Amino acid sequence: MNTVIIAQRSPYAVTVTAGKDYFWCRCGRSASQPFCDGQHKGSVFTPLKYHAEEDATLYFCGCKHTQTPPCCDGSHNRL
Could you give phi then psi for residue 22, rounded to 5 degrees? Predict the structure, then answer.
């Protein structure tokens, strides 16, 4: 349970709302991808909080290997 699961090999396009907090799933087990639903319980993983400063469309990492969390950096192309 301490291994990252690749949720998908592409990013999730998400429209975020200014002032809202989002909790990105780091473990890949969440059924609510790309966001956390608590499936990490009992593992070394915790969600990453992202606070939206403005309304925008962001591309949240689906492979969980990004070097710029929570956003995609193209790491899925090297898996």
Answer: -125, 145
